[in-house]
Amino acid sequence: MKSTKLRLVTEPADGLLIGGLTALSTADYPGWLAAVVFCQGCQWRCDYCHNPHLLPRQVQSSERSISWHDVTAFLERRRGLLDAVVFSGGEPTLHAGLPAAICKVKDMGYAVGLHTAGIHPRKLRIVLPLVDWVAMDIKAPFGDYARITGVAGSGERALESMLQIIASGVAHEFRTTVHPDLLTRDAIFDIATSLQFHGARSYALQEFRAQGCSQGSLALEAQSQHIDAALAHAVASRFETFELRRS
Ligand code: SF4
């Protein structure tokens, strides 16, 4: 009988459900020019999600339908012009074809980045040795995750994924989206303390952006510059690298 790990690694990339492709980004892989492949599907339901069209397990519009063949053809044409490919979402680790897709992209000479919410720690463990950089959302103190994700047990999964990323030694960034109605100062300190305790090296706080958010009340209530400089400074001192991203 095939082991679970072998089955996941050998799953073909063709089945990857792709909900979008950004041809060029300077913001999704630090310091490098990257294409971003948006994988379709996510099991969590964060109110502030700015990609709600990527949440269902099927592509919502035929205009958005992109095959894996389309992606590889595009990357062939961009050889020498792009440094990296980032798999984002939705939640990329949802897809059994992700390891094969990553291997294909690496064979083409690209570095590979991964954006994850840490939803599937078991699948993340298989993918981590294949990627060059990983960014993981930390949505709340781990004991309070379900308030943001709407899913019981999500904090335990995120904690396990966070620990795996740190143990893997892969270059990483943890980041937290801050909406003033959803995260208090104490909650932000709680998250930062936990990350520091477990050995995280890189952290970013990013202010909620209304763009794409389907929850009108959240969009109305958020104001820019809601993370004050003193808070950012106190959090920054705990990490080797820290970034504050204004809305
Ligand atoms: S985990 Fe990410 S993709 Fe999924 S609902 Fe939350 S913000 Fe959206």
Can you walk through the features of this model?
This protein has an 8-stranded mixed beta sheet. It has one domain (4-245): TIM Barrel. α4 (121-127) runs parallel beside α6 (154-168). The N and C termini lie far apart (50 Å). Helices cover 33% and strands 20% of the residues. It has helices at 4-10, 68-77, 98-107, 121-127, 146-149, 154-168, 185-198, 216-221, 229-236, and strands spanning 18-25, 34-39, 84-88, 111-116, 133-137, 171-178, 202-207, 241-245. Bound molecules: iron/sulfur cluster. Iron/sulfur cluster is lined by residues 42, 44-46, 49, 51, 55, 89-91, 117.
Key phrases:
alpha/beta, binds iron/sulfur cluster, globular, 247 residues, 8-stranded mixed β-sheet, TIM Barrel
Order of helices and strands: HEEHEHEHEHHEHEHHE
| CATH C-level category | Alpha Beta
Straight-line N-to-C gap: 50 Å
Give start-end ranges of low-pLDDT stretches.
1-8
Structural class: alpha/beta
Q: What is the count of structural domains? A: 1
Q: How many helical elements?
A: 9
Would you tell me the overall average pLDDT? 91
Q: Which small molecules are bound? A: iron/sulfur cluster
CATH architecture group name: Alpha-Beta Barrel
Proportion of beta-strand residues: 15-25%
Strand runs, count: 8
CATH topology: TIM Barrel
Main sheet strand line-up: 1-2-3-4-5-6-7-8
